[in-house]
């Protein structure tokens, strides 16, 4: 048993010839955040503290679809959402519809620790943020030129964008047709300490050109985010498919009820439960295993273990 950490920056149809000016800043951020997480685990920070710390840093990087880099709704606004969960206690907190909160993941943790509830959204979540004194900014802070242009492109094509995919607005359950022209990705982190305590955190701005009020898989416990005493999971990709497949919980359920290993459970869910081209996930187990499967073209991801394994990859 030893500590382990994994993080992601979104899954989707990432072309192999992704330009360096798109790829390199994201790789540099993942490398930096991975080292932050490693240092925190070595300093004996709790897994809950570690995943919050890492996701906050990812939220502050405008190259990913969370926090500062959150994509825009059909009305040109941001609606951020996040979720955090402690595997040892199953305590969890989630938020949606945020327009001013700098770090949605920290507000999700406050929901978990300071309220009798699990999930707050929209005006109620914003009011709670003000009450707790968390850092906020004018909504214009989150509306970047990159995302204004992306919304314009999506509107012209009458499309919504799913992380690194662009697809027509769906009328059925079929997976999206790949096109590879999005540059953004949901972020997440999972961690386990040397005592086997687990935690997970996920944060996103959702879909480009999404309807106002749309909620994805990220804040839905058991879909985009889940942890118990066996594993911690953070998913990314097409939120509606991830919700239908209860991706994160199914990984834990296969370990709990079928006795599968972390890798076996995660591989089965990604390959057999989620439609092709829709899903990626990162997961760690209580024994320090780590896995990062995806059924999309690629997934920005990184991981490290106490025993020296370290990886940063896209495809």
Q: What general form does the structure show?
A: globular
How many whole angstroms does the radius of gyration measure? 17 Å
Structural class: alpha+beta
Task: Report the oligomer.
Answer: single chain
- Strand count: 14
Overall average pLDDT: 92
Strands of the widest sheet, in order across it, are: 4-3-2-8-7-1-13-14
How do the SSEs run, as a string of H and E? Answer: EHHEEHEHHEEEEEEHHHEEEE
Share of residues in strands = 15-25%
- Name the poorly predicted regions: 165-183
Number of helices: 8
Q: Would you kindly provide a written description of the structure presented here, covering whatever features stand out?
A:
With 315 residues, this protein is of the alpha+beta class. 32% of the residues lie in helices and 25% in strands. It has 8 helices and 14 strands. It has helices at 20-42, 47-59, 104-114, 122-132, 145-156, 239-244, 247-258, 262-273, and strands at 4-12, 80-86, 92-98, 119-121, 159-162, 165-168, 187-192, 198-204, 225-227, 231-237, 279-285, 290-291, 298-305, 310-313. The strands form 3 sheets. The chain has an 8-stranded mixed sheet. Strands 9-10-11-12 form a 4-stranded antiparallel sheet. A hairpin with a 4-residue loop joins strand 11 (279-285) and strand 12 (290-291). Helix 1 runs antiparallel to helix 2 and helix 2 (47-59) packs antiparallel against helix 3 (104-114).
